[in-house]
Write a structure and sequence with these properties.
Elements (H helix, E strand, L loop, with lengths): L1 E6 L2 E3 L5 E9 L1 E12 L6 E6 L5 E3 L7 E6 L4 E6 L8 E11 L4 E5 L3 E5 L2
Parallel strand pairs: 2-11
Antiparallel strand pairs: 1-3, 3-8, 4-5, 4-9, 5-6, 7-8, 9-10, 9-11
Amino acid sequence: QVQLVESGGGLVQPGGSLRLSCAASGSIFRINAMGWYRQAPGKQRELVAVITSGGSSNYADSVKGRFTISRDNAKNTVYLQMNSLKPEDTAVYYCNGDVTIVAGLRRAYWGQGTQVTVSS
C-alpha cells in the first residue's frame, strides 16, 4: 500500500508564511499528479493546488500569487509554500496523490491532514 504523510502545519500570524510537505512511501511504481486540498470548518474540501509529474501546476484563484506548489520526484515529496497568509486560509490541509502501485493499479491516496491556523 501507499502512505502519504504531511508535515509543516501550525499557527501563524496574518501575512506570515508556512511550508507544507507531503512524503509518499510504500509500493509506488509511479506518482502521477499530486495536490493539496483544504477543508475549513463547516465547508467542503476544496482544491488548493495541483502539480503533474512533469511539473505543470494549477491553483485555486484564492491562492494564486501567494502559494507555490512544487515536487521532488526523487523523494516522492510534494511541497506547498504559503506566503501572505490570511485568516481565511485557516483549514486542515490534505495531500493527495494519484499513484500507480507496483501491481499496476492506479488510485488516489490521501494524507491524514495537517492543521493550518492563521490568526493574530
